[in-house]
Amino acid sequence: MKKLNVGLIGYGFMGRTHSNAFRKVNNFFDLEYQPVLKAICARDEKKARGFASKWGYESVESDWRRLIERDDIDLIDIASPNNTHAEIAIAAAKAGKMIMCEKPLSMDGPEGKTMVAAVEKAKVPNMVWYNYRRVPAVTLAKQLVDEGRLGKIFHYRAKFLQDWTISPDLPQGGAALWRLDAKIAGSGVTGDLLAHCIDTAIWINGSIDKVNAMTETFIKERKHNLTGKVQKVSIDDACAFLARFKNGSLATFESTRYARGHKALYTFEINGENASIAWDLHDLHRLQYFDHKDEGRVRGWRNIHVTDGDQPYMKNWWVPGLQIGYEHTFVHQVADFIEGLQTGKPASPTFREALETQFICDAVLKSAKTERWEKIGK
Ligand SMILES: NC(=O)c1ccc[n+]([C@@H]2O[C@H](COP(=O)([O-])OP(=O)(O)OC[C@H]3O[C@@H](n4cnc5c(N)ncnc54)[C@H](O)[C@@H]3O)[C@@H](O)[C@H]2O)c1
Fold first, then answer.
1. Choice from 61, 80, 134, 328 to test ligand 1 binding pocket (greatest atom count within 8 A of CB)
2. Same topology for domains 2-131 and 133-375, yes or no?
């Protein structure tokens, strides 16, 4: 097997999911490449050493520039906060490295464009970790729509609800709370959560033409962890928007971190002329499917347990009936990336494909300010 030497940047939540995926992928997928955990990079060298010994990384770097200079690294994996993605990705592309980058691709569309230009100029394989595409039930939903089973699509409805920022005592900024700081995150729920919903939506239902949004920042000021001062909160705490897809369907998207009782309730529903589909992250291995062609007496919502060998990805796991979970979506993403290297057909979404989501997020945030419909930029 050919070695694929990985240099990971960031050992937080995503650093763990990616490391787990690189370690497991060859146990479950037959591939020509084997990821090797060469180096973990984070600013705190002591903590990075602890992470390296736990996950089996061979070495540690405290400056990502040094990691990129290394000849023994083939692939740079960016799992650090959003404001670091562009600088790291552009430098990595110039150094000829393959790049896997966490979502959202960038702080905004124009910045994302510079990243797309860099990877395309350098002709390096690249991908963005929109892992929900790799939930088998979500991939199955995409297959059913592509096969035309739903017929003409009328509605797409998505939401992503959490409740972890309701307390006014929660500070903003710094480790783990950089998501509340727009200078680091780019935006609030729009770039963090709706980006996932948008990516899935455009993958399954095609491009969005225009959007009309509203956002709110419920807690206006919070203590900032880095300055120690009470500062204005500049992220969107909640966002809801209407969208018109180019295929004529109408959509609603909603996200908030103020939906008491919901931790990560990502759901979507698609209604077509012949059939409907619904999916829920809290029950991620199931796909709800209603087919109007079924005989009337027994027609109803089917609850498909997506665990069988002929369903997406599942032949690589256990036996039919035994489900998989969240972490497996990252294993699938690595497997798909490697298959892309083998076949020369890049795995989706590439930086260019993920750029569309950035411009939709930009239009959503703009519309919330202008209170008008906004077309999607390029
Ligand atoms: N695909 C998903 O479902 C998903 C889920 C969560 C987060 N994310 C994305 O993953 C990225 C990281 O999020 P997270 O939840 O893992 O964050 P986190 O706060 O848990 O971890 C971030 C890591 O980056 C490191 N870091 C920060 N600045 C750095 C720098 N300049 N150089 C090197 N390391 C640096 C931090 O020390 C930390 O280890 C973000 O872009 C986020 O949007 C994606």
1. 80
2. no
Architecture of domain 133-375: 2-Layer Sandwich (3.30)
Residue 305 backbone dihedrals phi, psi, to 5 degrees: -85, 105
* Domain-wise residue ranges, the chain: 2-131, 133-375
CA of 261 to the centre of ligand 1 (A): 25
Whether the CB of 64 sits within 6 Å of ligand 1: yes
In the sheet with 2-9, reading across from the earlier edge strand, the strands are 59-61, 33-41, 2-9, 75-78, 98-101, 126-128
Q: Please state, in angstroms and rounded to a whole number, the distance separating the CA atoms of residues 305 and 320.
A: 9
Residue 149 tokens, joined: 């089973």
The pLDDT profile of the chain, 378 residues, written as one tens digit per residue, is 999 999 999 999 999 999 999 999 999 999 999 999 999 999 999 999 999 999 999 999 999 999 999 999 999 999 999 999 999 999 999 999 999 999 999 999 999 999 999 999 999 999 999 999 999 999 999 999 999 999 999 999 999 999 999 999 999 999 989 999 999 999 999 999 999 999 999 999 999 999 999 999 999 999 999 999 999 999 999 999 999 999 999 999 999 999 999 999 999 999 999 999 999 999 999 999 999 999 999 999 999 999 999 999 999 999 999 999 999 999 999 999 999 999 999 999 999 999 999 999 999 999 999 999 999 999
Cβ-contact 7, 99 below 8 angstroms: no
Q: How far is the CA of 230 from the centre of ligand 1 (A)?
A: 24
| CATH H-level superfamily of 2-131 | NAD(P)-binding Rossmann-like Domain (3.40.50.720)
